[in-house]
Amino acid sequence: MTFRTKLIITGISCYLMFLIATVPASLLFKFTGSHLQAGAVNGTLWHGKATTMQAGILNLGDAEWSLHLWPLFIGHVVADVKLVQPKGFAQSKVNVSFGGRIKLNNISASLPFESILGKGGLPGGWTGMAQIKMEELLFKNNWPSVAKGTIDAIDVIGPASTPSNLGNFRITFPAAGSTSSSLVGELQDLDGAALAVNGKLILNADRSYQMDVMVAARPNTPDSIAQGIQYLGEPDAQGRRPFTVAGSM
Fold it and tell me: What does R_g of the chain's alpha carbons equal in angstroms?
């Protein structure tokens, strides 16, 4: 590499650093289009803050980020991001390509269901906390296509009409059966849960989903839930009954 080439590269780098240190943070959201949205935006591209962030179906809350310089040279916006909500938090390294893909790495989060899925939370008024530990999560067209890690549902309570605490459950990604067009997660109960649960959550590229699980009551299962299980399909040899939920978003 000649001295002149080095000088040009240094000059371009210095100019780019000047830009991201002075250009308003709101410019970031013009590059990402509808894939990332926010309310008030303050600061600069280098270090900024935004309120009421949303990425696809996820309501993220208030955000603060520190931008990485070198990925900009290959058309990526990469930043260390922290999210704060009244009842939760999240942090991750976020990579947004100009083509619209959103990739998250080293995710650590604890968020209430209603903040992730909107004010209504889960259908039926179910509540709880999602504790997320993921090495990687990739969104294409605002929909999860790759995931590596676990999502724990803690203190799942519902339904709203007769609320009961069913305990803790876990989804592990990726599970057997995952393909380029379908992301599969393994669903299971954790120690002490009031329901024995085992099955799969399938997220298809066409934005449809399906949860197929086998459910069985335990001695600590609330009566209202245990009675409802009796109306599911025929039990297998272990007394588990099939339960399926499907839809699209």
Answer: 22
**pLDDT value, residue 20:** 60
The 8-class DSSP code of residue 35 comes to G
Q: Check whether 67 has a pLDDT greater than 60.
A: yes
Q: Judge whether 226 lies within some domain.
A: no
Residue 164 within any structural domain of the chain: no
The verdict on residue 194 lying in a domain is: no
β-strands 143-158, 127-140 pairing: antiparallel
Neighbours of 13 (CB within 10 A): 13
156 strand-pairing partners: 167
Is residue 82 within 8 A of residue 90, CB to CB? The reply is: yes
The string over 160-184, giving b where at least 16 C-beta atoms fall within 10 Å of a residue's C-beta and e elsewhere, is eeeeeebbbbbbbbbbeebeeebbb
CA distances from 159 to 100, 199, 215 (A): 37, 21, 16
What is the pTM (predicted TM-score) of this model? 0.80
Mean predicted lDDT score pLDDT of the chain: 84
End-to-end CA distance of the chain: 52
Structural domain tally of the chain?
A: 1
Domain presence at residue 38: yes
Cα separation, 56 vs 75, in Å, equals 21
